[in-house]
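Students often ask why inverse folding is considered easier than folding. One informal answer: many sequences map to the same fold, so there is more than one right answer. In these notes we will look at a single instance of the problem. The structure comes first.
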């Protein structure tokens, strides 16, 4: 039987409605939340992420500013830009796109974002809070995975969740969210990475399998046991001469093959991506309400 499709666009709309309702209950004439993003260098992928965020922000009446710095910018220039946003009383959320060029000290830059404005949980302080079970803002992509599972009726509690990937951006924070003693957590988590021997032996024992590798079609049908819920975080661009751009976006999962054995699956595009943006905007709204001292939930 074909897997049930977990539609990220539908869930993103649901989250957006909650954000709008949260903001409308605390409307202040002339004021609105605002997100500022710093992008170092520019390419098709970062432009597309930025446009996506801008579209959702505009729908939610959240101010959005994308500050594009030259890819050869000095580290101190980036730090100065972050500091300016940190001090700006009208900015609620600050995000610096990663990965940054390797000559820059990513940690030093991310750690300049004040905790309440760190809406993607990138700073060491906020990571520490997450790892100690008390996140201030949950990292958007990892939280998006949890939201997709819970909102689709696949609570991770008591389940064996296998996460492929241990990056600081996705795999590691996701494993922590899934282990938390709270709603959306309470899972038994296995994390696999490039040094894991026989990944398939782990994936076949998963109730829920989340792939965050960045490897097109890595997860094949034979790696998945019947009934597994599969969440594909991967966003990979592969050549496709039949498209106008010459490429197309695929996930880490061989969607066609895995759909035949999984009980549910997220598509790419239209899966984790849109939910991530909506979770991020909800975090911005919460930061704004907290600034106004109006955050009650
Ligand atoms: P990353 O920093 O490159 O990390 C990839 C992880 O996968 C690493 O832990 C790596 O292991 C592991 N890995 C790579 N090849 C492997 C293999 N053959 N077998 C087992 N493990 C392997 O990537 P990332 O930033 O976490 O992103 C992962 C994917 O998610 C990318 O496609 C990215 O575009 C996508 N993404 C999507 C969203 C969204 O909103 N949907 C957000 C962020 C990222 P080692 O640690 O041992 O190297």
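Output (designed amino acids):
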């Amino acid at each position: 039987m074909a897997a049930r499709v977990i539609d990220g666009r539908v869930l993103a709309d649901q989250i957006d409605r909650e954000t709008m309702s949260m903001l409308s209950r605390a409307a202040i004439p002339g004021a609105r939340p605002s997100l500022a993003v710093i992008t170092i260098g520019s390419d098709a992928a970062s432009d597309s992420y930025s446009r996506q965020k801008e579209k959702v922000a505009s729908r939610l009446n959240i101010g959005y500013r994308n500050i594009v710095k030259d890819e050869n910018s000095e580290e101190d220039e980036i730090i100065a830009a972050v500091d300016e946003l940190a001090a700006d009383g009208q900015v609620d959320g600050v995000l610096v796109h990663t990965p940054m060029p390797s000559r820059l000290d990513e940690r030093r830059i991310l750690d300049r974002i004040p905790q309440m404005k760190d809406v993607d949980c990138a700073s060491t302080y906020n990571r520490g809070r997450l790892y100690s079970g008390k996140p201030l803002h949950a990292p958007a992509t990892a939280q998006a995975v949890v939201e997709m599972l819970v909102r689709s009726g696949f609570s991770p509690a008591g389940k064996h969740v296998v996460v492929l990937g241990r990056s600081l951006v996705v795999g590691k924070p996701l494993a922590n969210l899934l282990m938390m003693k709270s709603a959306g957590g309470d899972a038994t988590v296995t994390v696999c990475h490039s040094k894991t021997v026989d990944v398939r032996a782990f994936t076949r024992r998963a109730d829920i399998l989340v792939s965050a590798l960045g490897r097109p079609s890595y997860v094949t049908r034979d790696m998945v046991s019947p009934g597994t819920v599969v969440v594909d975080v991967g966003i990979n661009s592969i050549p496709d001469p039949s498209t106008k751009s010459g490429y197309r976006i695929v996930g880490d999962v061989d969607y066609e093959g895995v759909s035949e054995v999984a009980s549910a699956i997220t598509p790419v595009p239209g899966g984790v991506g849109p939910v991530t943006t909506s979770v991020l905007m909800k975090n911005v709204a919460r930061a704004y309400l907290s600034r106004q001292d109006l955050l009650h939930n």
